[in-house]
Amino acid sequence: MTDVKRVKLPGVGVLHTFVTEGGGKVGVIAHRSGHSDLISFDDEAGGPEATKVSLRLSEEEAHILAELLGGTRITESLTTLEQIPGLSIDWFQVDYDDHIAGQELGNLAERGIFGLTVVAVVRGEGANPAPAPDFRVFPGDTLVVAGTPEKVAKAFTFYRTGELTFKPKTESIDLTGD
């Protein structure tokens, strides 16, 4: 396990560092203002022969880099899951003009969409796993859903427009006795 050291930098923020297997040193200075500095050194000692690199990132850029670096494990796991025949895992980004924006998630089975699960709602930096039907969805949220590709498509149409793309089956009963 990699040992991450944390040092408070008064008036600046927090410095996190660790040493790579190759002996390089990597650090992130998380400034109180929201931006971050990504730093690296070629050797642990940081002597005169060390190559030093520093890159300033905005808060958004730091989040993107974190997702790119950390997201590979998640993506690999989801790729394995998606190889299961008939299973689709997809993300729905909620926009202001989507039907679901400002609404409760509700129960899709009550609307005739069975076999689909909202696995989580991602809001900001946090996730709300297995949200209840009364969970209110807002623009900027990302819904993570799992089901058959057809059910996922139906749910996304409903979330976007409020319309279901199928008609419930009805039986006709002959009351004339003929």
What does this entry look like structurally?
- By secondary structure, the protein is an alpha+beta fold.
- The longest helix is centred in the middle third of the chain and has 24 residues, at 59-82.
- The chain is elongated and about 60 Å long.
- Helices cover 21% and strands 31% of the residues.
- The chain folds into two domains: 5-67, no CATH class; 84-161, Alpha-Beta Plaits (2-Layer Sandwich).
- The protein starts with a strand and ends in a 17-residue tail after the last helix.
- The strands form two sheets. A five-stranded antiparallel β-sheet has the order 1-2-3-4-5.
- The chain has helices at residues 59-82, 149-161, and strands at 5-9, 13-19, 25-31, 36-41, 52-57, 88-93, 116-123, 126-129, 142-147.
How would you summarize the topology of this molecule?
Layout: E1 5-9, E2 13-19, E3 25-31, E4 36-41, E5 52-57, H1 59-82, E6 88-93, E7 116-123, E8 126-129, E9 142-147, H2 149-161
Antiparallel strand pairs: 1-2, 2-3, 3-4, 4-5, 6-9, 7-8, 7-9
Give a brief outline of the structure.
By secondary structure, the chain is an alpha+beta fold. The protein is built from 2 helices and 9 strands.
How many domain units? 2
What is the residue-averaged pLDDT? 76
Distance between the termini: 78 Å
Instruction: Detail the poorly predicted runs.
Output: none
Number of strands: 9
- CATH homologous superfamily label of the largest domain: Regulator of K+ conductance, C-terminal domain
Largest sheet: 5 strands, antiparallel
